[in-house]
Amino acid sequence: MEAQGQTVQKTIRQSPPVDLTKPYDAAWVKGKHIVITGGASGFGAAFVQRWASQGASIVIGDIDAEAGEQLVQELRKELGNTNVWFVRCDVTKWQDQVQLFKEAVRLSPHGGIDCVVANAGIAGKDIMQTPGDLSADEPPPPNFKVVDVNLYGVLYTTHLACYWLPRNPGSSPSSPQTDAAKTVRDRHLLLLGSVASLAGIAVQPQYGAAKHAVLGLFRSIRISSFMQGIRVNMLCPYFVATPILIRPAKIMLAGAGLGRVSDVVEAGTRFAADASICGRALVIGPPAKAVRAEDGQLVPSLTHEGDGEETGIWECYADDFAAVDTWTRRWVGLLGYIESARGWVGWAKDVAASYWAPTEHKQNKKTA
């Protein structure tokens, strides 16, 4: 299974697990043109701050025009980097995102986009499990804004990234063999998932469902994105003290520790800067020391005793991704083998059986 997993990884141009002890240079983002949704606050604003300080040109898309414009003005003044722009964008509206990408291309110093960060996300009160008055004739309709932003907004961003990234002038198809230190033009899509992509989250079923879907999106498109030369990576932050963390969650997590924005930015910067990382995911959680598990992987210590310095950044499902994708490849191959073994005769029999089989409508009519 391991050898076949390595074959799959090679075929889809997926990197091996990220070596977080391997140094990289954040200055590698210099000259890259980056589009980031939800970039006016939270993780997005922190990414913008870090990457603009390293010389990247950035287009921020956000629904909060006041915060976005203020951030741009502050960064231009502080950093002297005039290649930072704001475009108002409601990620739940297709035409808003289309306009964001078109404007980003127009503003690009080289006429293309190197990196797209699908960062926009919200949380809020979820009434799916608390429908209110149980004596009423029917419950009120749920508000699906969290799903609209965290899932459909990401799908729009992904769809547009898959169109514009391969058109980036001067870029080459992404590969783990890329020399990151010498690569400026890129084709990188970074998805913002969550620990809620990996496990359930209490009283936030919509948020959990949307973030699970982002994980599914990542695992699906990274298998075939090599055909467009795009590298796809994902961040899965734990609860971090940002505006998206609602008060009940803060109370529930009191004393348990939170992830650090600086670690989220560090993990995102490694992905954005190192063009050789393809198809990987990193989890960001409360800082902990590392211990080596039986399979050799470094995992967080549950006793706070371990080797080396504390870190809040961890490789996510390094082996499981390969194993699951290998299983899927075997299953599809098996179906193909069965089909070829049965030949055209078997195919024709199945088609004929499907065509002549009584439909549900005819069955209902016959039994009426």
Automatic annotation (TrEMBL):
The lineage of its organism: Eukaryota, Fungi, Dikarya, Ascomycota, Pezizomycotina. Keywords: NADP, Oxidoreductase. Pfam families: adh_short (PF00106). Belongs to the short-chain dehydrogenases/reductases (SDR) family. It comes from the Eukaryota. This is Uncharacterized protein.
